[in-house]
């Protein structure tokens, strides 16, 4: 099925894994535009998404790296950005021995104490689908036109 509509352009951090093939195979009509990003892994207008594989989430809690990332997202939110953490994978599939309650407690803290939204999916395909839908809803809410030219830090 061919889609004649312009693809949705989403900024993707240069350090993130390539997802364009997954998006193309599943006819999602998304174009990932690679760019070095200081905050988050994906950006669409003022929407910033931090993607975490479940093992990366667990290790970032253990080594406290998540705290720095959350502080950066909180500052971005104070500047009018919307931040979302999207977790790929199931907590039961983690390879780390860190206590499950520690991970769950940190997730509650991220949402309740820091007011950052969290979303969950099982795999990369679901992530691509959710990312596209999240950006489309955001685009409708704010009637965005050309988000591919958006830069971080509020410079548009």
3D structure, described in words:
The chain has 156 residues and is of the alpha/beta class. It has one domain: 3-Layer(aba) Sandwich (Rossmann fold). Helices cover 39% and strands 22% of the residues. The protein has five helices and six strands, in the order βαβββααβαβα. The protein has helices spanning 20-25, 54-62, 65-78, 100-112, 124-142, and strands at residues 8-13, 30-35, 42-44, 47-53, 82-88, 117-121. A six-stranded mixed sheet has the order 2-1-3-4-5-6, sandwiched between helices. α1 links the parallel β1 and β2. The model is unreliable at 151-156 (pLDDT under 50).
Defining key terms:
single chain, 156 residues, alpha/beta, Rossmann fold, six-stranded mixed beta sheet, 5 helices, 22% strand, globular, disordered C terminus
Care to give the gist of this entry?
The chain is of the alpha/beta class and 156 residues long. The protein is built from 5 helices and 6 strands.
